[in-house]
Fold these 2 entries.
Entry 1:
Amino acid sequence: MKQLLCLLSLVVILSSCSKSPEQKAKDLIKEEMKKSMNDFSSYEPVEYGKLDSAITPIDTFGDSISYNSALQTMENAKKEMIEFADTKSIAADYQNKYDKGKKESDSLKIVIDKKIKEYKPVFKGWVMVHKFRGKNKLGALVLNSIIYEFDKEITKIVDVTNLGKE
């Protein structure tokens, strides 16, 4: 019985020594703050967001820009067709621009929908948003928010996105 109690105590002690994933992330953030802040002594953590999984994004950015551009072309051509409805040759030119924009937007919509349908998210690590106060270069105390992305094991920061001052 004593051996079981000693073994159980040892397991509890050893398991309490390991850091939680959230604590690992907070420690990495603090180390990054020490390196990157103008005046670390002014660092005041305000909020740590939830540690969440980071997955690969759907790659539709370029297609979406082209799609929106084609829609804008259609909208502009439509306005011009209405404005120049009494001038058949000009209206026909804008009708052609509209038809071209419609064809392009329809084909891009198919590409985007296919990418969304076939999208398979892949776990690539973890993310946490951190809000803090600290002095800027001029010595003024400012509130900042930063998104930190960590590797899968939460041993290093792999990306930082500054959301700016609030």
Note: Residues 39 and 139 are 8 Å apart (CA to CA).
Entry 2:
Amino acid sequence: SIAPDRKCLIPSSQLCAPTAWPRVITKRRGVVKHCTRQRAMGLLIFANVLWAGSYSAAKEAMHTFSPVELNFLRFGIAGLVLLPVLWLARERMPIRRRDLPQLGMLCLIGFVLNKGIEFAGLNLTTASDTALLIAAESIFTSIMAWIVLREAVRGAAIGGLVLGAFGVYIVIEGGFSLPHMGGGTRLLGDLLVLVALACEAAYSIFGKAALARYPGLLIAASGIIGSVAFWLPAAAVNVAIAGMPHASTAAWAGVLYMAIPNTVVAYVIWMVALGHVDGASAAPTLFMQPLVGTALAIVLLGERPGWATLAGGLLILGGVALASRRASGSAISAAVAAEPLSG
């Protein structure tokens, strides 16, 4: 979930153009033909609202399903929706055999490790904590860009990093107290969410090269479908040990929301809109995720985040905004382009 592209090495017009995915989505339905800049911005906002609801939906679903079962159901259902699209577009999006290891690595990082750790953390902490901590992903992306891509370190980026890190500390510690080993499961959940953010940042950086050669739909769909090869046996083992879950209507609603609106619909909306809006204009809409996600957790789940959670979240958002003002093109473009791929 990250920040703007002020000097994108891969122009959004090429990376996210309508021709980058099957005409079965765009041409036949006329989505792009009538899409103005204002409508595109509205679509970006709507996509972020859909993503913001994922934390509350997943939290509700995990009242019944384990994180492993939820990931299997989410990606299994989404994979069934995306598979016909890939089949119809197989001639337009051929995969080179030599790129299979890279796509497999992205699947492992972005849709197995990342989502497995994130949902395990969300199961232990609150949806509001998770929504606010997710905003710190760009901090991890910037650090990884400095290390892996050897990008220049700027003063504004360092200041944003320090401010954002301080916000993360306040959220985790619940205030300005000194570090301690207490905090129970909520502290462990917050820490797991941070580990998941590191995985997602790695996905963004290493996925940049793949995005230069393949449409985002292909990378996302192959990762979603490929991850089922892990989640299916993992869920089977989980059911064998813990028994078949007896899900409520609300739990199934959470599963379906994660699979269709969150994983499929929001992705298509995001990519259609990016064909008409540059990265720098699209990036501010990403800040809606932690804000709307926290509001939904309060309204739907009855959570009551304390002052430390809210203050820490504001510091994280401020740090991200400060760092992104002069952020390098490679890190920001990777983050923005990869946003829907593992959102």
Note: The radius of gyration is 19 Å.
